[in-house]
Every structure is written in C-alpha cells, then in structure tokens.
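Readers of this paper often ask what the protein records in our data store actually look like. Such a record has a labelled line for the sequence and another for the backbone structure tokens. Nothing more is needed to write down the fold, since each code stands for a local backbone conformation. The remainder of this section carries one protein's record, kept here as part of the documentation.
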Amino acid sequence: MQEKSHGDADPAITIRRIEEVDSIVAEAISTLSRGRIEIEIGSGNGHFLVAYGEKAKDTFLIGIELKKKRCLKILKKIKNRSLHNITVVQEKAEVLLQRLPPRCIDHYHVYFPDPWPKTRHRRRRFIRKSNLDILCNTLKPGGRLSFATDFFDYSVQAKLLLLLHPGFTLMDDNPPEEVFLSVYANKFMDHGQKIYLMTARKNE
C-alpha cells in the first residue's frame, strides 16, 4: 500500500495510507466550519464519488477502495476536474471504520457492494450487525447511511437489520441521484434489473 504522489504533493490526488486517516479526519473537522464529512465505502472507479464531490463543494469526501487500479482511476478523475474536497484511501472498509473517532461522519454511502449470493457466504456481506454498530457509533446524530443493491435478498436483509437496529430509523428519501452514474447502476439498468435503494438516519 504505497503512497503514490505521481509528482504532485496535493493529497487530493494521492492515494492516502490507512495510517493517515486520523490526521485526514482531524484536519477536515478543524477546517470545515459548516462543511460535512462523508465516506463512500467501495468507491469502485469513482463515478459516484467524483460526480457527487463536484456538486457538493462544502463536503469533504473520503473514498475507501481496496483495489489499487480503481484508486488510480479515481485519482485521475479528481485531477481532471481539479477537485480538492475528495481523498482516496486504499484499504478494507472495516479497517478504516475501526480508526474513526465517534460522531465524526455525516453520511455513509454504500452502493452495490458484493452481494455474496450463496447462503453460506452471507455473513461476509458488508451490511451486517457488527458493521452497523460501528457505522452508528461514528455517525453524527442525525447522520445518514445510504445503500443500494440490485440483489433482492440483500436488500431484504439490509432493511431488516436497519429496522431492528436501535440506532437507526429508515427514511423515505433515497440516496443522491449520482448513485445512478456508477458502472454497476448503468449495467443493471441496461439489463432491466431493479435497483433497491434505502436511506437510514442515526437517531438523536
């Protein structure tokens, strides 16, 4: 997990190391007077992250992505649009979450994660009780968790877990419209597959 600067010291166009997350969040909190900190878990090629970040200039966005090639694609999009409110961390989402302080995040975005369709693999899904506990702990009161999947069984499981979790309340509003710009969303829509969307709010 080497930090790649490509000759440019601007953190916005550099893959950040997991060890830097503490300073990234602390800096964002100290410099954003009325701004927001949001995280996309599993940013893929960055279509949502960059389009959303381009519109939400008062929001500091952290994209977490495990695959280096995808991180580099995101950085290229960030550089091409001269954006300075997005940073990318190459790591597993669970590792990132463990490093975050309580009540520091305004919104989590989780779009089209691996559905792990086999019954014996469902425990590997990202939306599970242990992860919801951490998400809830690191969200500010009133913070949001937005989720999208094309897999019906996963949507049912996620909805039930959120309904049963004492820290969350399901909302009527959907995730931001930029979610439909992702490669997966376009692929699913092209094949006529239904996309299941939901947003939950952390209770006060």
The longest helix spans residues 68-80.
